[in-house]
Automatic annotation (TrEMBL), chains A, B:
Protein's name according to its UniProt entry: Lrp/AsnC family transcriptional regulator
Organism superkingdom: Bacteria
UniProt-annotated stretches for the region Disordered: 136-168
A Gene Ontology cellular-component term: cytosol
SUPFAM superfamilies: Dimeric alpha+beta barrel, Winged helix' DNA-binding domain
DNA sequence: CCTGAAAGTATGACTGG
DNA sequence: CCAGTCATACTTTCAGG
């Protein structure tokens, strides 16, 4: 990916509702060109979609917790993510290396809700849980570093490109 | 918050670029009314902003890890979040209950990058780290459950519903 | 791959139930 | 608090360098 595409992605991660007009000004292209690039980025899957950022406190889900799970019986087929997908309190599910099998991020209304969700997790996926309550969130979902200077790290790339220089 | 506002928030978490026209159709109000409600939701901080969802693989950040940290010297002032904020590889920082002080979510290009970031975390915040590598992400950042559970029992005027299968 | 322009559509403010 | 209208701005497509 090249410099202008990175600038577009960076701008849209900061404000997903930026108009093509503003975007064109930011990156120094015409509106049509920017529009074309955004469509290509969406089509290639670089931009997967757009979301509103909501306040979980305002949605009455002020309690966040990480729930590490591991199966009671490791010989059983491991389909925990599917068996837990129906629980709307689970924000994210990560398959992890280490002692645990999965790490879940859950958001609930309070301790009583957390207790209920933990029970549902245990019964639905036949797992044990180890829960870490989040006390506060200094920052979350920060835009990734998308610099204009792509650092090539140890992967083979087309021979025509050379590290650190702009390619045509 | 009431039912229609919840429906609006749910729709916008699923697609942050929905037009007010589409939104009005979904919730069964006029464009003007929906527009007014969205502005109030933004103003009240329920909707904090809009973002593009990007593919971290496409951004050449395919390696995700959780880094639990705790200070070398617990008597020192605990300002780890500020001292780590400058590291762009840190996606999120959670203050947690339990053995560790903070849980960081980091995204990097590969193992070599992870090693470098861990060193930077340790020196910048004077902490020890315990890292859990993410192998895969079955799902992430799912829209929270918003509707169907009003806080106060009571029914306002029924809104005409049409075409309801969005944002589970 | 870019620019520029034209048609269709959404937005934002305002009037009025 | 909701609906309708209108001027302005944006989006989207098409022709062309």
């Amino acid at each position: 990916m090249e410099e202008i595409d990175r600038a577009i992605v960076a701008a849209l991660t900061g404000d997903g509702r930026l108009s093509y007009t503003d975007l064109a000004e930011k990156v120094g292209l015409s509106v049509s060109a920017v529009h074309q690039r955004v469509r290509r980025l969406e089509q290639r899957g670089v931009i997967k979609g757009y979301s509103a950022r909501v306040s979980f406190e305002a949605l009455e889900l002020p309690l966040t917790a990480f729930v590490a799970i591991r199966p009671f019986d490791p010989s059983q087929p491991d389909d925990a993510p599917e068996r837990l997908a129906h629980l709307p309190e689970i924000d994210s599910c990560y398959s992890v290396a280490g002692e645990d099998f999965y790490l879940l991020l859950v958001r609930v209304a309070g301790p009583a809700d957390l207790e209920r969700v933990l029970q549902e997790i245990r019964t639905a996926a036949n797992v044990t849980t180890r829960t870490t309550v989040v006390l506060s969130t200094p920052y979350e979902h920060r835009p990734p570093k998308i610099s204009a200077e792509p650092a090539v790290r140890g992967r083979s790339r087309p021979a025509a490109e050379s590290a650190g220089s702009t390619a045509g």
